[in-house]
Design brief:
The chain has 35 helices and five strands. The protein is mainly α. The chain has a three-stranded antiparallel sheet. Strands 1-2 form a two-stranded antiparallel sheet. Helix 2 runs antiparallel to helix 6, helix 3 runs antiparallel to helix 5 and helix 16 crosses helix 18.
Length: 694
């Protein structure tokens, strides 16, 4: 249950009265120390942290009882401690409400978060003037002891949790390896898996269902970042929990059924044999093994960008028909890659073997699964059209292959008019479907398209670069395009293409290729690449400016490229785009500026702009969630390391503090963390200017 946070502790004129601050500290300390259930992971860190906060709570209550004026340095310390305790509360709640298994896998990372908070508590206590506070001697001694303990505390990682985490990863790895071979049998150690599940508190079917729900929520949360490995690992965990549940509780049900059978009359053997035969013919497939599209047993499960799993045939048909969203969640897919779910494939393979279901190739899965039922009592007829789907798909792929080979021949040998038409048709063919993109590259189109980038015919050049853009969406084609020496030609089109559309599609191609880290280095090393993108940022259409901004963002992820982006004059253009409502690329421009803040040249250039701070304050109030995160990142970076002038301008602006307080209370986790940090920094600035500490 969400707990309403106390009122923010800072206003533009200084701190709130001591009474309000202490009441807020006592309230949030009680909320932490009275939490009913300690999470099954991070038990040592959570228990130790609660003990520390109980001790601090006693200090706060005693200070409140004295009802005396506090020195300014103690108010600053108490403000810092409030921020620390609020972070403790958020972290413990995340451990309680999140997936136990995912927390186990991330045990070291979460332990490090506790360690960072303890160190922040230590720094806050460094400035607590105990000698000036009217508190009892024993309380002073306890706080001094706590201060010494947190100063020398080491990272606490529970060795038992690390062992469980390693055992869990071994099970996941065994499952993944088993799934990679179509003839290999699953080698999952279910006894070990059951022990791990029991140790983290999964004992009943309801516990398993709740854990699956939490993992699914985590997968959806991670999917938007495009972290395929993370999403794949979470989906593997979901598969393992689902199978563990079915194995553990089906065995218990089987034992119960055997006990019931022994009570039956021995003369009913023939009837029981008939029952067993009938039961084996009517198979109840677990829902997690069914494709959400076809509802058939999956033969080749794959993960899409949203984190959901589908059978390859079904989701490929969905994507090839022009859809770019996840069928289950409706979320737009940020890429069209299909990642094999080896863990689930292994579990399905094991299920098929245990239930005597023929294991067939994915190509024949439509027909072989037609005898299976959606439930034990309702039989399903497979539509006649589905029976011909595989043969129809093969015929379609053969047709694409013949067409691609024919068009590539025209690119190589045809006249200008024929080349123009062939490039245009390849552009259309490559627009939809990963199979089309693979087949076109296998037909040898890429080297000829790279040659046509230098064509003096505007349409040929435009069609060639757009076809390469479409082909680059298929991951393997990125390597082939770079290997064909395309980068220099694409950069030339970007800088001096015959049409604006050709230049903009060249920028989009650079964005697509630069997803691979090594190509960020290669593209950034070309002298004209970054300046040409900056030029498009100035002269392009709305779509072109967006393509240029996203390409610059990708390239700037490599630190050396950041300096070149700054030296090419990108910063003033990006700031101008923040104020250009027609351009509509505020979030993209903010993201690039936030990256450029990471180099000294970028920081210096951004600080030169006097209009940026008011713009960022307005974006804190009215921007998108991502825009707010990048705005607070920029403001925090500008205020650090000698940014006193920016801090003073923030304090003078009447909208800045309320906006930061609102973000600290209601923003994303990242925005809350940075808003807290900026508020603390402004607090120090306010304290030094109004209440200097002796």
């Amino acid at each position: 249950m969400d707990v309403t946070l106390p009122p923010p502790l800072m206003v533009s004129s200084g701190f709130l009265p001591t009474g309000s601050l202490l009441e807020s500290l006592i309230q949030i300390s009680n909320e932490v120390t009275t939490m009913e259930k300690i999470p099954s992971t991070q038990t040592k860190n959570v228990s130790t942290m609660i003990r520390r906060i109980k001790l601090l709570s006693s200090l706060f209550e005693e200070i409140q009882e004295t009802n005396s004026q506090l020195p300014p340095s103690s108010i600053l310390c108490l403000t810092e401690l409030y921020s620390v305790i609020r972070r403790v509360k958020s972290l413990i709640q995340a451990c309680k409400e999140g997936s136990c298994l995912w927390n186990l896998v991330r045990a070291e990372s979460i332990s490090n978060q506790f360690y960072v908070i303890v160190k922040e508590m230590s720094r806050a206590l460094d400035i607590l003037p105990l000698s000036l506070l009217k508190i009892a001697a024993d309380t002073r001694e306890q706080v001094e002891l706590l201060h010494k303990q947190v100063k020398r505390v080491d990272l606490l990682v529970d060795s038992r949790e690390i062992q469980r985490s390693e055992e869990l990863l071994q099970v996941m790895m065994a499952s993944s390896c088993a799934g990679k071979g179509s003839k290999s049998k699953g080698i999952i150690d279910f006894e070990k898996l059951k022990v791990i599940m029991t140790q983290i508190g999964l004992r009943t079917p309801l516990d398993y269902e709740e854990e699956i729900s939490k993992l699914e929520a985590e997968a959806e949360k991670q999917a938007g970042t495009g972290g395929l490995i993370v999403v794949s690992n979470i989906n593997n965990l979901i598969s393992l929990v689902s199978l563990s549940k079915s194995m553990v509780f089906s065995k218990e049900d089987h034992k119960t059924a055997q006990e019931d059978d022994t009570r039956q009359c021995m003369g009913q053997n023939s009837q029981q044999h008939h029952y067993s035969s009938t039961r084996s013919m009517v198979i109840n497939i677990p829902d997690e093994y069914r494709c959400p599209i076809s509802l058939d047993l999956m033969r080749d499960p794959v993960i899409v960008a949203s984190g959901h799993t589908y059978d390859r045939v079904s989701i490929a048909q969905w994507i090839n028909s022009g859809h770019h969203t996840c069928p289950k969640s409706g979320q737009r897919l940020i890429h069209m890659a299909l990642i094999p779910n080896y863990a689930l494939k292994s579990l399905i393979h094991q299920f098929c073997q245990e239930n005597n279901i023929p294991i067939t190739d994915p190509a024949t899965s439509s027909s072989s699964s037609s005898h299976l039922e959606r439930s034990p009592s309702i039989k399903r007829k497979l539509p006649e059209k589905a029976l011909d789907y595989i043969s129809a798909t093969k015929a379609a792929m053969d047709a694409v292959k013949m067409t691609a080979e024919f068009l590539v021949g025209k690119l190589a040998m045809g006249s200008l008019d024929i080349q123009r038409q062939a490039a245009y048709e390849l552009r259309l063919l490559a627009k939809t479907g990963m199979d089309n993109r693979r087949i076109i590259s296998e037909a040898g189109a890429i080297p000829f398209l790279v040659t046509l980038l230098s064509s003096h015919d505007p349409r040929i050049q435009e069609n060639a670069v757009t076809t390469l853009l479409n082909l680059s969406i298929f991951e393997n084609n990125k390597v082939l395009i770079v290997a064909a020496g395309a980068i220099d030609s694409i950069v030339d089109v970007l800088g001096s293409g015959k049409t604006m559309e050709a230049r903009e599609n060249a920028a989009a191609t650079i964005f697509s290729l630069s997803i691979i880290h090594d190509y960020k280095v290669i593209i950034g090393s070309r002298p004209k690449a970054i300046p040409s993108l900056v030029g498009l940022l100035k002269d392009g259409t709305t779509a072109g400016k967006r393509d240029a901004a996203t390409a610059l963002f990708n390239l700037a992820l490599y630190s050396v490229n950041k300096i070149n982006v700054v030296l090419s004059g990108a910063v003033p253009l990006l700031i101008d785009l923040l104020m250009d409502d027609k351009a509509g690329i505020t979030d993209d421009a903010l993201a690039v500026l936030a990256l450029l803040l990471g180099c000294s040249e970028g920081l210096e250039e951004i600080r030169k702009c006097k209009v940026l701070v008011p713009i960022l304050i307005d974006l804190l109030r009215f921007g998108s969630p991502k825009g707010k995160e990048n705005s607070i990142t920029l403001l925090l970076g500008l205020c650090k390391d000698g940014g006193d002038e920016v801090a003073r301008r923030l304090l003078m602006n009447p909208r800045s503090i309320p906006s930061l307080q609102s973000l600290a209370a209601d923003g994303s986790m990242k925005a809350q963390r940075k808003a807290d940090a900026l508020l603390r920094l402004l607090n120090r600035c306010c304290s030094h200017s109004r209440n200097p500490v002796e």
